[in-house]
Amino acid sequence: MRHRLGHKKLNRTSEHRKALIKNMLNSLIKYEQITTTLPKAKVLKPQADKIITLGKKGNLQNTKILVSKLQDIKSANKVKKNLAKRFETRKGGYTRIIKAGFRYGDNAPLAIIEFIDRDVEAKRVDRKQKEVKKNQEEKKAASA
Prior knowledge:
Elements: H1 14-31, E1 33-37, H2 38-56, H3 60-70, H4 73-86, E2 95-102, E3 109-115, H5 125-143
Antiparallel strand pairs: 1-3, 2-3
C-alpha cells in the first residue's frame, strides 16, 4: 500500500532534497525561468505555487513563513512586492512546465519551469552586474 507517500524522493536524503528545492525556488524567483530535469520541475511546481500564495496574503505571519522557507530576504521581498502584485487576480497555477528534450550526457528528460507572466529581463539580472564590474575594471586599466 502506498498510504501517505506524497512526495518524490529524487534519489536524495531528506536534507539534500530540502536544500535542493529551496535553492531551486530561489533561482526560480530570481530569474523567473530555470531549466532542470523533468522530475525536479514536477516537484518544484507545487512548492513555487505555495510560495506565491503565501506572498499574496500580506500579513506578518505569512511573511515570516516566507522568509523561513526561502532563507533569502531578497527573494522574499520580490515575492511580496513584484510577484504577488502580478498574480493578484489569478487564483492559482502561477507556473508552467515546458518539456525541453533530453540532456546530452545521460539522456535525462529536461524541462523549463517558468512563471506564467514572467519578466523577460529578469533572466539578465547577473549579466548587468558583470557588465558593470567589467566596465569598472576597464576604466581602472585605462586610467593606470
